[in-house]
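Feature request, filed as a ticket because there's no other form

It would be nice if the structure record came with a short human-readable summary line next to the tokens. Right now we just get the raw output. Example of a typical job, pasted below so the devs can see what we mean:
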Amino acid sequence: MTTIVSVRRGDQVVVGGDGQVSLGNTVMKGTAKKVNLLPKHNVITGFAGSTADAITLRDLFEQQLDKHHGNIVNAVIHLAREWRSDRVLRRLEALMLVANEEKTYLLSGTGDVIEPEDGVIAIGSGGNYALAAAKALVANTDFSAQEIVEKSLHIAADICVFTNHNLTIETLPAKV
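Raw output as currently delivered:
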């Protein structure tokens, strides 16, 4: 698994993730890139779960963005609907975070489309550790979104055996 966390604070939205790929209890790779910027639409994606499934979902999400002229709300709703109802897609084992300058969403194969209330959300095996750390840092520090994502991922990596310290972090300007 992995850990992906997103923080929206001030004039930034940041999505970061670690680079660990595990097969069972074995670390197979430590430098995977699970957070990607889709520059055409100015959207960041992050995934946790099966790599092939996640890449499939990212590609389908990008197709939905193209189809809906970059409208992230329509793209996530249509992807979630397709993911939930399609017999083949329904078997994909991954979670996905997507963020643009205005919105952040978590998408799942069960049809979930969740927008965080406080601008902080996380997925993956270390997601709850990163989420708790990020929420505490948002509430008790003046750190930037970038600093919070980095610190919360390092905290998760110190606790979760399926998360490492090799981070990929992408940042966009946020509309305030």
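Something like this underneath would help us a lot:
The chain has four helices and eleven strands.
The helical segments are 51-67, 72-85, 127-140, 145-159.
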